[in-house]
Design brief:
Chain lengths: 290, 383, 263
């Protein structure tokens, strides 16, 4: 029974990981950017939410409504300025710039907020309570996050496959030059993709802040590698693959914890490595491409 | 009307390829003098200063290695901290069994090199972004793996045994000297590697990998060699770290911050040059020392400077100097001089004055796949 | 040889739809084009021929905006577009079917066309019309383009460019990788394209194919123009000489007094 519980917890945690990862999937998949600051941007979303709640005492849900769009706009601007300039100069520069961004953000947060961890407190039972199926306890929050993750993925999937911009994003991921020939400014398309990425990652950061605690280094310590793991395991180019990747990661971690309580993270990373070595394109192959 | 062009044969010219011999002798002597002076430091300055210099040696070694990896071989590793930690732990393990930590250093170097060999086997086929991520995951995995063993301290580490009885001044001096030795060895190795065949192969790979392969260059071998050497010397730096800190801690020794520091120092100084890491390390140490009391600020500024340099001064600070003065302290390139009919004409100057000419290795933004992918979209075929 | 398009003498004072003046393009240190000039008038089919490495595709890509010239200008209907980014030029009316098709592999046929139509100018071409012109396409419009044959892919690529309603259609090496009979079929729909008011500038390695469809022809060799004229004016020997850079090709008589040719 403990194993079933582990698997279920793993699956649900996978939703949170998928939420972290879908923005990364977009940026890595569309722009080939290894955004080392991805996790830190999630943490910023969380901190901003904390700030807003502390100052204005609005209900937690409002923080989503405010922070997510703001971060999306920040994402667009960041992409158009910093990241595009780095992309123009090559993959190495992009990595350095995002690494630099990560270091600046983390240490900036450290300076202004100290190293203490904070959570987004919410007293609603929805957030702190849990329900049971048989002998398995499921936290409301975790289930809610999973549901939100699925909803976000559905929304993104719909956007990418149906909307004009979604098509442009997919086309630009395939062939940047050809999309220019069709009249589209790929930098603008990248900006939209980055806006989506940062919006979702801010959402993920706030969710994480409710589920666990945030500190300045959570971005690189925890979120970033999990996000990459979900993306790589699932496979680039498929959002549902990202959900699968998150689930696989979550389940691997929980199974690892069952074997040996301190091996939770290790188990996840080992699965990550396994996929990287044996099947780097991930579990879900993208429907490509000549 | 039609136009027909006739292209006649070009006038005959012969060229001679030379190495820049001119200033090597001077630089060599200069370097020797510097090393000797540095060696005398423990007799000349306070131990506080030598301790800072040891930090500088560690960073310089790491930065030189990252420069070798990313600037010459195109291997953007975000996981070198694995070797730093491994080097430290090799020393710890041997010290726990009675060996002097100083004597353990060579073992740490070899052990790290072997570990690098094993890791290369796992990650070598991965391209660009996937390679970088893989190195990071590997580093995280190594750390977690080591933390499992309580005999070597588990998650909180252990103090380093075997040095407790030593006279503090003597300890500081020995630590200093070993740090100096490692750094000198690292830079000499890099210099001779790049000046030799490997350097040529790496430049060829950077310019056009397919052409390099078809010319017979052993691309995989070259990269493997670079990765192993880098792993070995990062391990050496880790060993020096353990000795200088007198303790070994997973969170401090395996932190990805090492990669950030060595990458920033290398970038700021100038990728693709041997002199660059020296300058970058100096900048790093100056920042760290001046902003010591302001905690995280030196990292914030370091990060910002690295971003600015990466975007606007791609060849780093040394590159700025180099482009003005055309000076190369550690020349590894080739010069093309014309000889023959136009005797007495000035040298045509360096055709490739060193691997830095084309700037740091940038594979371009569009790599289509995780394994051996081609380029989509940004290719410009001169047809 | 019958040429498609406006093979009649050019208007003496007309404005060319597309004019390239003194275009010099470098790839790094390699000079790909050396002071190339040409004029394309409305309704013409202007073919650029030449061997590999002659600079043909570079010329087209520079006109489309994917390369920056070192010197020279590209002028579309009197407007200097040299400084414009490729997408701006596309919206102004320069449409290109790039070498190698370059379809969006993860998109379906219809999605490829839709992308092409995103920034379409007003005009006769719509996705519907593309389906009518290439009757096999409608049935397979939801298919992944990677599953299509080379010829079908080429057609989709042309359709993608057409739905944007360009004024000048640049075709880069249509025949590459395709069987001759397929190539002929594809070139066979050129009249329909021209009927709708387009002008075509094409690059072709297959000289006889180019001579079949072109109203004007220009040969490049190592970045220089070695021949220019109408198919009626040039002899096979002249073309061969120009193509391979053999000395001794004779000059052609000037055309109607106007000096529209590179001299």
């Amino acid at each position: 029974m403990a194993w079933v519980n582990a698997i279920i917890q793993g699956v649900l945690t996978g939703g949170l990981y998928a939420l972290f990862a879908c923005g990364l999937s977009l940026m890595f998949g569309v722009m080939k950017v290894v955004n080392l600051a991805h996790g830190d941007l999630a943490v910023i979303g969380g901190y901003v939410a904390i700030g807003i709640i502390t100052v204005t005492h609005v209900p937690v849900l409002w923080s989503f409504v405010i922070v997510v769009p703001v971060m999306a706009v920040v994402g667009y601007l960041l992409q158009r300025t910093l990241i595009q300039s780095a992309l123009d100069r090559g993959a190495l520069t992009t990595l350095i710039v995002t690494l630099g961004l990560s270091v600046v953000i983390e240490n900036g947060l450290l300076e202004f907020f100290t190293a203490n961890s904070r959570g987004i407190g919410a007293s609603m039972t929805l957030v702190t309570g849990s329900f049971s199926i048989g002998s398995i306890q499921i936290a409301y929050l975790l289930a809610l996050i999973f549901a939100v993750a699925v909803a976000v993925l559905l929304g993104l999937q719909w956007f990418l496959s149906r909307s004009s911009y979604g098509r442009l994003i997919r086309a630009t991921a395939d062939d940047q030059e050809a999309v220019q020939l069709a009249g589209a400014d790929y930098r603008h398309v990248f900006g939209i993709a980055a806006a989506l990425a940062l919006g979702t990652v801010a959402l993920a950061g706030i969710a994480f802040g409710m589920y666990s605690d945030l500190d300045p280094t959570t971005g690189t310590d925890t979120i970033l590698l999990f996000a990459f793991a979900a993306v790589v395991i699932g496979g680039l180019g498929s959002l549902w693959g990202t959900l699968l990747g998150g689930i696989v990661l979550g389940v691997a971690q929980q199974i690892g914890a069952q074997i040996n309580i301190s091996d939770e993270l290790l188990a996840g990373y080992l699965v990550f490595l396994l996929v990287l070595v044996l099947r780097p394109q991930g579990l879900v192959t993208r429907r490509t491409q000549s | 009307m039609s136009v027909v062009t006739e292209s006649g044969p070009r006038p005959a010219e012969s060229f001679r390829v030379g190495r820049s011999q001119r200033n090597v002798a001077w630089t060599g002597i200069g370097a020797l003098i510097v090393i000797v002076v540095l060696a005398f430091f423990p007799y000349l300055v306070y131990s506080g200063t030598t301790a800072i210099m040891v930090q500088g040696f560690i960073v310089l070694t790491l930065a030189s290695m990252w420069n070798l990896l990313a600037g010459y071989a195109g291997l953007v590793s975000v996981g070198q901290q694995a070797f730093v930690g491994l080097g430290a732990y090799f020393v710890l393990i041997l010290a726990l069994h009675g060996t002097s930590p100083f004597a353990a250093l060579p073992v740490a170097v070899i052990g790290s090199g072997v570990a690098a060999l094993a890791m290369w086997w796992l990650v070598s086929r991965l391209r660009s972004g996937y390679f970088s991520i893989a190195t990071w995951v590997l580093a995280a995995t190594v750390m977690l793996f080591i933390e499992r063993f309580n005999s070597i301290g588990g998650g909180s580490g252990l103090p380093l045994p075997g040095l407790a009885g030593m006279d503090p001044t003597l300890l500081t001096a020995y630590t200093y000297w070993i740090g100096l030795a490692v750094t000198v060895a690292a830079m000499v190795t890099v210099y001779f590697l790049l000046r030799g065949r490997l350097g040529l192969v790496l430049t060829a790979i950077r310019d056009d990998e397919v052409a390099a392969r078809s010319s017979g260059a052993r691309v995989g071998r070259a990269r493997l060699l670079v990765f192993v050497v880098a792993g070995a010397f990062c391990g050496a730096a880790g060993a020096v770290l353990a000795i200088s800190q007198l303790q070994v801690q997973p969170s401090a020794d395996f932190t990805v911050q090492w990669t950030a520091e060595m990458a920033f120092a290398a970038i700021i100084g100038g990728l693709g040059t041997i002199e660059g890491p020296i300058i970058g390390t100096v900048v790093y140490m100056v920042l760290q020392q001046t902003l010591q009391n302001f905690n995280a600020w030196y990292l914030i500024i370091l990060g910002l400077v690295a971003i600015v340099v990466a975007l606007f001064a791609r060849r780093g600070l040394w590159g700025l100097v180099d482009s003005r003065l055309h000076v190369r302290l550690f020349p590894v390139g080739y010069w093309l001089r014309s000889v023959g009919a136009d005797n007495g004409r000035a040298d045509s100057g360096p055709v490739d004055s060193g691997p830095v000419d084309s700037g740091p290795v940038d594979s371009g933004p569009v790599d289509s796949g995780p394994v051996g992918g081609g380029t989509v979209g940004s290719g410009a075929n001169p047809v | 040889m019958t040429a498609v398009g406006n093979a009649v003498g050019r208007p003496a004072n007309g404005t060319p739809l597309l004019e390239v003046s003194d275009l010099t393009v470098h790839h790094g240190q390699l000079q790909a084009l050396d002071a190339i000039s040409l004029k394309v008038y409305p309704g013409e089919v202007y073919a650029i021929i030449g061997a590999n490495g002659a600079g043909k595709s570079t010329l087209l890509r520079t006109i489309a905006g994917l390369h920056h010239p070192t010197k020279g200008r590209v002028v579309l209907d009197g407007t200097d577009v040299t400084a414009l980014r490729p997408e701006r030029r596309a919206r102004q009316g320069i449409g290109m079917v790039p070498e190698g098709r370059r379809l969006f592999g993860s998109l379906s046929v219809e999605e490829n066309l839709k992308v092409g139509a995103t920034y379409a100018r007003p005009g006769p071409w719509t996705i519907e019309r593309v389906y009518e012109t290439f009757d096999w396409m409608r049935a397979r419009r939801n298919q992944q383009t990677a599953q299509l044959s080379g010829g079908e892919q080429q057609t989709v690529a042309i359709g993608r460019a057409l739905v944007a309603n360009p004024r000048v259609l640049l075709l880069d090496e249509l025949s590459l990788g395709l069987a001759p009979v397929i190539v002929q079929r594809i070139y066979g729909m050129l009249p329909q394209v021209l009927e709708s008011g387009l002008t075509v500038l094409l690059v072709e390695q297959d000289v006889s194919q180019a001579l079949r469809v072109a109203s004007h022809i220009q040969c490049l060799l190592e970045g220089h123009t070695t021949l220019a004229g109408t198919p009626a004016e040039v002899t096979p020997e002249q073309v061969e000489a120009a193509y391979f850079g053999l000395a001794g090709a004779a000059a052609l008589p000037a055309e109607g007094g106007e000096s529209s040719w590179p001299g």
